[in-house]
Structure to design on (832 residues):
């Protein structure tokens, strides 16, 4: 895309009311626009990143048999009253319509998905089934905090699975856990699964996924040899102790961000909604249910919190809005512009995502500052100097040193 | 996809409270689930169709320079109060939060997009700009009707453009009009643009796009030689008259469904939000603004209303959830199953979208009934008979006659 056509621009000033790095950097770089505390709109660059995160999540859920649907977000009040959540969930947004009907805004979809599953699951042969969506969620938070990471409106992938037995749920949980760890890995994040305390309704053990970062709200103790990880608040050991799980590794401590969770919902929702299936022996049973959440906008914020320096964001390649920032330092009609145009078209024809800074009237310093703030993985400069040398200057965002390569190698840089 | 894995099933019975063909067929075929009057969830098959419609809309908007964003749907009340719409728009959902703040649910996004554009447009050089999103919308309708076609929650593409002059808006409107007609054409619909009366705020002329169908809510008079089309309510001519536009064609009348609209918003919103740009002569001016809507879920409903018979839906190929319904009439371990499996894998490897009816315990009659109801463009049958003949039986959903072709031709059917 030509940067001269992109309607957003960078801002030099940090917004006064944003104290988190994620919102500050994303607003300054033109990725998001703040509508009010805890509510953001995603501008072209931000939506590109969010779409890539959503597609990674979608691919991993599809791989483990998840079937994608899109549930309503405007909910009738009846199922919420049936489960009791209408009165007990304080963050539930309630709406009074003109017709005197009451509605809720989706903050979780057990009340909607359970009756949907009931409609189609009659027999043990129909189980297990895993259904998910990627959609907006709403929470009436008293205070919004953490920038885009804990909002009143946010993007989330929520999956629900139904099983003939608790054992089958446990089997599937381990499959989902691996898929979640794949998601974090593909987003360039270092995540661990921890045991956590139960959610609003669950008395059972639940699991949280923690991304290790320097700026997390939580802290964890983890083993450097196996996958043992617990929240520091409940850990019996401390950093330096031997690992109680494998006995081999040393425990370390780190700050962390919660970036996903799993709830063992048991038979609670199927019982409320009279959802039974016919077992192999002919008896009627309630399915066991699991719930798996991962905040897509929260993941975006976590990636920023984990990948920045004093100049701006440093996007992992997998979720960067574009792979290359191609910077033209030339004027209209000159040979530098002709070469940059040729390379821009060459890359575009090869399907490489390029942001081409073809803006006129911007100094090299302004263009470099913008490139560092926006944070694409690779910066390429076409200047009088590089054209004279018959080269392209490339520099990784995360690296300090640039190098000169031939235009031919540059055009094939994402093909090798 | 294996149909044995698809969690939805067809229903023989039409829901009692659905009087429209679109909702009745979509529910019976397992595409949507009704949550309450005017609110539907999209199940795997329905979401596949909706995603294809969204991608057609997205491609056509991108082609004409539209930049996609994702705006918040939970809105602060302040901009709605600034424009006066908080009190004058009766379908606006209003929410009272726990913190005593008032929010609105998005039913149109002028109040959000105008301040976003103001943030980045400073000069005439930044104009024109066209920004769009594909998102959920909410309307507090007194009565929901027309199935999925006029709901309390629905999917919509809304684009907003800003221009330095009225002439530039008029120029761009014609570009959008062609893109809209491309969208309808690609969805298999016959649409016309008509002049219509203004919307809530607009005293100016606006445009509607009407899809000609046998079951429309509106009726139009149109020319069979040129693109003249007017709503029958305001038409001065009637069917059989000569066309007042081209003088050559005869006028015909047809029922029609409104499937898109354009509003010339003038400078109203920029004025309310103090959004000016610096013109070439140094003066400060308000941009001219246009708004272009197309309901994505409404389009889905319109496609169904235009493409069905007494057996079920007949999807146009461009938006069908799968291209082929491959039907196995064999048993576990027999050569019929082996051949069907081979063809299913062959098609999948070639990237062809196939729904493979591998369900056990279903009769040929049940499978054919389901295939007709679900309505994929091509049905292919693998039976003892076809395997003996070394052939595959194929039948277009819209056609009555089947034919036998070789397995090799079948595997390449979407490659020729």
């Amino acid at each position: 895309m030509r940067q001269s056509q992109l309607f957003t621009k960078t801002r030099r000033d940090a917004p006064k009311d944003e104290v988190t790095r994620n919102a500050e950097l994303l607003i300054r770089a033109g990725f998001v626009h703040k509508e009010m505390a805890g509510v953001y709109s995603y501008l072209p660059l931000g939506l590109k990143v969010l779409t890539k995160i959503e597609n990674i999540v979608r691919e991993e859920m599809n791989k483990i048999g998840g079937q994608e649907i899109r549930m309503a977000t405007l909910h009738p009040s009846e199922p919420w009253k049936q489960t009791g959540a209408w009165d007990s969930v304080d963050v539930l947004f309630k709406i009074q319509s003109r017709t005197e009907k009451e509605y809720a805004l989706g903050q979780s979809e057990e009340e909607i998905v359970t009756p949907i599953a009931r409609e189609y699951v009659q027999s043990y042969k129909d189980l297990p089934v895993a259904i998910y969506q990627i959609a907006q969620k709403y929470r009436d938070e008293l205070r919004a905090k953490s920038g885009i990471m804990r909002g009143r409106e946010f993007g989330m992938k929520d999956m629900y699975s139904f099983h003939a037995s608790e054992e089958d749920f446990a089997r599937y949980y381990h499959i989902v856990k691996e898929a979640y760890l794949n998601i974090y890995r593909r987003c360039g994040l270092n995540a661990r699964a921890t045991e956590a305390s139960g959610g609003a309704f669950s008395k059972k053990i639940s699991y949280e996924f923690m991304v290790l970062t320097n700026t997390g709200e939580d802290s964890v103790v983890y083993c450097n040899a196996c996958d043992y990880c617990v929240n520091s608040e409940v850990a019996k050991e401390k950093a330096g102790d031997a690992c109680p799980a494998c006995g081999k590794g040393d425990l370390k401590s780190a700050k962390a961000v919660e970036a996903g969770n799993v709830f063992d919902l048991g038979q609670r929702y199927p019982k409320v909604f009279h959802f039974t299936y016919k077992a192999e022996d002919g008896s009627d049973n309630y399915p066991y249910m699991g719930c798996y959440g991962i905040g897509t906008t929260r993941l975006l914020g976590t990636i920023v919190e984990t990948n920045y320096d004093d100049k701006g964001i440093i996007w992992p390649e997998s979720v960067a809005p574009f792979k290359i920032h191609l910077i033209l330092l030339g004027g209209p009609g000159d040979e530098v512009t002709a070469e940059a145009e040729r390379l821009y078209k060459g890359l575009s024809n090869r399907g490489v995502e390029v942001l081409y800074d073809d803006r006129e009237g911007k100094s090299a310093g302004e263009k470099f500052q913008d490139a560092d703030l926006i944070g694409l993985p690779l910066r390429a400069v076409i200047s009088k100097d590089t054209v004279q040398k018959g080269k392209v200057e490339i520099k990784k965002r995360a690296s300090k040193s640039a190098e000169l390569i031939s235009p031919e190698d540059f055009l094939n840089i994402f093909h090798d």
Notes: The domain at 324-411 of chain A is CATH 3.40.50.800 (Rossmann fold). Residues 198-202 of chain A have pLDDT under 50 and may be disordered. The CA atoms of residues 37 and 143 of chain A lie 8 Å apart.
